[in-house]
Amino acid sequence: MNPPPGYQAPGLFATTLDKVVGLARSKSIWPLPFATSCCGIEFMATMGAHYDLGRFGSERLSFSPRQADLLMVMGTIAKKMAPVVQQVYEQMAEPRWVLAVGACASSGGIFDTYSVLQGIDRVVPVDVYVPGCPPRPEQIIEGFMKIQELVENEPLRRRYSPEYKELLTRYGIIKS
Ligand code: SF4
Q1: Which of 16, 105, 126, 176 is the most buried (most CB within 10 A)?
Q2: Do 50 and 32 meet the contact criterion of CB atoms below 8 Å apart?
Q3: Is residue 107 part of a domain?
Q4: CA angle, 29 as apex, 87 and 39 as ends, to 5°?
Q5: Which atom of ligand 1 approaches the CA of 36 most closely?
């Protein structure tokens, strides 16, 4: 693991608080797996010994939204299930991130039907989309590493910005 950019001299290293917090957060993400169908099986493989998401500091899955940083949605989301996805997101503490795993979570996939939500970004803001039906564990890990990049580089004040509040207001997560 590389140290964050900063000022170095013999016996001295100085950097900013943003960078230290970002580094710590990105290497200790607690995911909440919201798995409804086949993509969830790929996630099980991703957690197994061969791929081992624990190598990224994320072997501790959180089945309580209140103790999770990353919502991983894997599988087909029926429209009836959409309010549940949003409620789970609302119960997560800030800062929180969302990974849409696979074609169904990203866009409804092959299920262009009356009953299937055509992408979870209809109900929650998504940070990274993983393509594939199903995506292989390598793709899930790549998506996870993109999330780590975002986490590491996010300014501490982003969640207090008017743009972020406007985004949540558009989703109806913050009432205007
Ligand atoms: S994207 Fe494909 S593999 Fe994943 S849940 Fe949808 S149908 Fe199943």
Answers
A1: 105
A2: no
A3: yes
A4: 65
A5: 5
pLDDT, tens digit, for every residue of 87-97?
A: 999 999 999 99
Provide residues with CB under 6 Å of ligand 1.
37-39, 75-76, 102-104, 109, 133-134
Residue at 151 is within a domain: yes
- Cα distances (angstroms) measured from residue 154 to each of 105, 141, 165: 24, 20, 16
- The region of weakest confidence among 17-21, 86-90, 126-130, 139-143 is 17-21
What is the domain count for the chain?
1
Beta-bridge partner residues of 13: 8
pLDDT tens digits along 23-49: 999 999 999 999 999 999 999 999 999
Nearest residue (by CA) to ligand 1, atom 2, is 133
**Separation in Å, CA 44 to CA 34, 56, 147:** 12, 16, 19
Q: Whose CA is nearest to atom 8 of ligand 1?
A: 38
Domain membership of residue 49 as a residue range = 29-139+146-170
